[in-house]
Amino acid sequence: MSISRENITKIRELIERADDDSAEEDEEDDDEEEESKESGGEEETQEEEKQENESYQQATSKEYIAVGDFTAQQAGDLTFKKGEILLIIEKNPDGWWMAKSAKGSKGLVPKTYLEPYDKEEGQESSEEGSEEDVEVGDEIAEEPEAKQRTGSHWSAVRKALSEINTVDVLTTMGAIPAGFRPSTLFQLLQEGNQFRASYFLQPELTPSQLAFRDLMWNAKTGTIRSRPSHVSLILTLWSCKMIPLPGVSIQVLSRHVRLCLFDGNKVLSNIHTVRATWQPKKPRTWTFSPQVTGILPCLLDGDCFLRSNSLSPDLGILFEPGISYIRNSTGEKGELSCGWVFLKLFDASGIPIPAKTYELFLNGGTPYEKGVEVDHSVSRRAHGSVFHQMMMMRREPQLLVKLRSLNRRSRDILSLLPEILIGSMCYIHLLIFYRQILGDVLLKGRMSMRSADIISNPVLATFPKLLEQPDVMDALRSSWAEKESTLKRSEKRDREFLKAMFLLVYHDCVVPLLHSTLLPPFRWAEEETEAARWKVITDFLKQNQENKGALQALLSPDGVHEPFDISEQTYDFLGEIRKKEA
277: which residues sit within 8 A by CB, 6+ positions away? Predict the structure, then answer.
């Protein structure tokens, strides 16, 4: 059960008062009476605390009626039917309330399925209150059902809420706007691997466990079969405008936008991150896909592809602009959301929204909060003349996104990818190579479909790591572009020859880098580490170019590499499936 700050203050005053009373009595009585009165004081304090807690629980409890059927989505949820009466025990700001059914079952329910229920007309309870009136305390209700809710969405929201104290301090200091929050999508990424691209890149088995759901072989063409999906599109991030500036007490390490597929309740895909650039003259404007010399780093590429087979009518794209920061006074690092916006992909009739540029105004708070503004000084509810309202709208934080229509070639390329995935367009051709090699090894080259032997293939074993190390992916892109420029037209039309060349480039570039002791571990938004990694990568690529391969660098006494066993170079697809199920 949550305890409001006022009640916590009252309880502390009672405890201090009881301690003072017992201290005065201690001076007058002997040692034996001392002990008895101290214990009595503690019992009184505990009784007063219990009464305060019971009165608070009664104040926040209210009967609600369900307006629709809801089926539990994960452990800790409460299933109920339309018309069922539920007693609300605790109201959380994220929209999931702790409820108790008439049968005595307890669990979390979405508030959007509930309406207040009055037994008699005209009877209005003073206990009625919105979820904004309930503050989340430092301790969570000790209900066993609530503790069982271990899904990444809930734990990430709970973790974000637990960090609001730090955000409150920064907000009070004026270091950040009131609508900033700890990043919900960043917390999901920290929870585990299930929201990373490498997780969705692995093939998925059918319920029979005898075939792959999204990887099939086409015997006529000798390649994997293309599979259309319910949602297949390409979008371009243009810019973010009028993003409020943080104060001088924090230093911004990265500006970026995280995006994923979302149905208003849970994340349905991997979380993809695109880093933004900005100019000192226009610090409130973020841009993507800047003009650079050489290849554009995939981390800066604003062109993204999306695929999903979800049939949810509420399916859309959740965008969360955010910053990585460090506090100058304490050195504490963190990740803040600068707002969020949800672009629904289908209208009320189930028709896909048109391909065009969308100007999306950001909301403050988290995706589970409603009615919060990013910056209260620029309010959408401002009154005045039409001209004044238009000027205020121009000052609101917004994100410009363009949905692009697919031509036949783009549609064919996307149909070779996994059913659910979001990624950068700049490395989509490398993903196709990986999928083709995956099909060759798992479908074409296996002696028996029932064989579950571990497969020795460094490409399949290590390629998913590249999606979490974008600089190594850029090294592979650069090496492959250089190799491809030397090929003849007839060689470029030969699929088998291209795959063979790709394997050679991969072994010359990626495998040595992943095992190099000179390459520091990848750390997000650490400028020194990123610069050190890129220097090692560029020096290695330069040596490869001069020596026409990595063999000399590998045999050089200057090149020290970490030892590895054969298991690190093998691909155990059943093991990957077990990881996903876990």
Answer: 255, 286, 287, 288, 290, 300
